[in-house]
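Bumping with the actual sequence this time:
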Amino acid sequence: MSIRTFPRWLMAVLAVLMLGVLVAFGLRAWRRSGAEEYRTFASPDGRFQIVVFRIPGRVTMPGQSSDAPGYFQLRDSRTGRVLRERSVEMVQLVDR
C-alpha cells in the first residue's frame, strides 16, 4: 500500500496528531529547560546522587516555593550520568 492510496483526510489527521505530539514534547522540554536545582541527596556510600529540580513558572506566595512541580534524577556520582528520571507533583515530597 503506497502513500498515494491513503485518503487526504487520513493524511491530514495523521499530520495533526504528529504535530500535536511534537508540540507536547517541545513544551515539556522548554519548561524543564528553566528548571532550578532544588536539593541534592547523596547515597551513604557516595556512589549515587538524587538531584531534585524545581520547575518555576507560576506565581507563589512567600514560603510556597517548595510546592512547585519538578522532577528528580538518579545519577552516578563518578560520571554524572543520569540513570533514572521521574516527575514529581511537589518537590517537597522528595525526601531522604
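The C-alpha cells above came from a reply further down the thread. The longest helix spans residues 8-33.
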